[in-house]
Design a protein that fits this description.
Elements (H helix, E strand, L loop, with lengths): L6 E3 L5 E3 L29 H5 L29 E5 L11 E7 L12 E3 L77 H7 L4 E3 L7 H4 L2 H25 L3 H34 L13 E10 L14 E12 L14 E11 L2 E5 L5 E4 L7 E5 L2 E6 L8 H9 L8 E10 L3 E11 L2 E5 L5 E2 L12 E2 L2 E5 L11
Parallel strand pairs: 11-16, 12-19
Antiparallel strand pairs: 1-2, 3-4, 4-5, 6-9, 7-10, 7-15, 8-9, 8-14, 10-11, 13-14, 15-16, 15-19, 17-18
């Protein structure tokens, strides 16, 4: 006798209404073993040790393979073992493809359909093709010909645009598997030779000054006026000589000779003592207060120096944290000795080598206490008036008493033969008191002192018979810092 309501019998004999419940498929159970405790030993870390070609403990390494009961991937091989990576067959054209899916334990049939997909990820070989990589053990029937593990990059890589620090190298690894760290750049032979002079010259933040930045009366005096005076005196001598010969009147010639003597004396006076006149002008120039200085105003600021981002080191004495360094080597030329340069005259000291550098720095104003950035780096125009002191005086008697001087000459490929040499060095180190002359520039909250657009003239000093001199760029004035105690900052 049927019923309108469906019913079914349970396993214990009880009848219940409703249709029997359909058996549900058991979900795939995925389990993984806990990561072993390595204790810092990379040999116990399993796959991590394989990445650096370090033998691992076989008892604690876990093989990668398929999960039991998981649905098979798209592929034509069926079996228990899985293979992730390229399978190298007889044809060389398969080297750029990767196969993902389970692989049978038997041989690979030629009619099997393999789902192949070209892989573009990972490192490339020297021909620009992807390097074959395999992770996990292979089945018994498939023997890979080449296995590529993670480790040092190949020598040729495509440009990625990633900015890194340090030299581009894939050096050896240390015992713990990490890249071996080496302090300092390596040259082609792998040595740690570091030349501070080349680093200073190659740094764009450092301004390299030459001997032309020193004061010279010839360069500061206007050329048109100089040649006009020469022409006038030549005409005066011709006219005075003609009148002397014609009417026997030497008055004009005596006047011309007297004027020529006066002008020549003034020129000689300015050539010898012109630097002292400029330093005196800088000392008498009134200090300005940065708090009330206007934008574009030419000022003089005196205060304490603080290093910027790129500190310098003096060349010979190795004085650290400097903002200005100058090392000059002079040679005395006798009657039969060699000349230090092309313009070196006999019985005078001639400049043979000069290393002078300056960078951006900060100065704290004594008047207002404000700090300003002095833009003397990155090739700015700078005129330094920094006193130098003699650090080495070499002659034939004490040549062997200074091995550091001999080393300094050898680093710069300078000969150390029988020459009378003298080295002077000057510097401005952090904490020194300096005077800076330049133009004030305010950029939002940043107060800077920059070079003026045109040279600044000192004007005539008639009481001391000094002619006008031009100060080009930022003017730095500092006395001999080796005799003055610096202020710690």
């Amino acid at each position: 006798m049927g019923s309108r309501f469906p019913s079914h019998q349970l396993s214990n004999g009880l009848y219940v209404s409703g249709r029997p419940e359909q058996p549900k498929e058991r979900p795939v159970t995925m389990s993984s073993a806990a990561m072993p405790y390595t204790g810092g030993d990379i040999k116990k870390s399993g796959e991590l040790g394989k990445m650096f070609d370090i033998p691992v403990d076989g008892s604690k390494s876990r093989k990668s393979g398929p999960i039991s009961g998981a649905p098979s991937r798209t592929g034509s091989f069926g079996g228990a073992a899985s293979h992730s990576g390229p399978i190298t067959g007889n044809s060389g054209s398969r080297s750029g493809f990767s196969v993902s899916g389970p692989v049978s334990a038997g041989s690979v049939p030629g009619s099997a359909q393999v789902s192949r997909q070209k892989s573009n990820s990972g490192p490339l070989n020297k021909h620009g093709e992807p390097i074959k990589k395999s992770s996990g053990p292979q089945s018994g029937g498939v023997t890979p010909i080449m296995r590529q593990n993670s480790g040092p990059l190949p020598p040729v890589l495509p440009t990625t645009g990633l900015i890194t620090s340090g030299p581009i190298s894939s050096g050896p690894l240390n015992s713990s598997g990490a890249p071996r760290k080496v302090s300092g750049p390596l040259d082609s032979s792998g040595s740690m030779k570091l030349h501070s002079v080349s680093m200073v010259h190659n740094n764009q933040a450092v301004t390299n000054l030459s001997h032309e930045n020193d004061y010279s009366f010839k360069r500061s005096f206007p050329r048109p006026i100089f040649w006009s005076l020469i022409l006038l005196f030549v005409m005066g001598f011709i006219a005075g000589g003609f009148i002397l010969g014609a009417v026997h009147n030497p008055v004009l010639l005596i006047v011309v000779v007297g004027l020529f003597g006066v002008v020549a004396t003034i020129f000689l006076w300015n050539s010898c003592l012109g630097r002292r006149a400029i330093t005196g002008f800088i000392a008498r120039y009134a200090d300005a207060e940065l708090r009330t200085a206007k934008n574009g105003q030419y000022v003089k600021v005196s205060g304490v120096v603080t290093c910027g981002n790129v500190p310098l080191e003096s060349s010979f004495q190795r004085i650290p944290r400097c903002v200005y360094t100058s090392t000059s080597l002079y040679e005395y030329r006798g009657w039969d000795s060699k000349a230090a340069n092309a313009k070196h005259r006999r019985f005078t000291w001639g400049l043979r080598s000069l290393e002078r550098h300056v960078v951006d720095f900060y100065i704290s104003d004594f008047q207002s206490g404000l700090r300003a950035l002095v833009k003397t780096g990155y090739g700015a125009r700078v005129t330094p008036y920094v006193d130098e002191s003699v650090v080495v005086d070499i002659n034939q008697k004490n040549r062997e008493l200074s091995p550091e001087f001999i080393r300094w000459l050898g680093e710069r490929n300078l000969s150390s033969d029988d020459r009378i040499m003298r080295m002077k060095e000057g510097y401005i180190k952090e904490g020194s008191t300096v005077s800076v002359m330049g133009v004030v520039q305010r950029n939002e909250n940043v107060l800077m002192i920059v070079p003026p657009p045109e040279p600044f003239s000192t004007g005539c000093q008639w009481a001391k018979c000094f002619l006008p001199a031009s100060l080009d760029g930022i003017v730095l004035r500092c006395e001999d810092t080796s005799k003055i105690d610096v202020i710690p900052v």
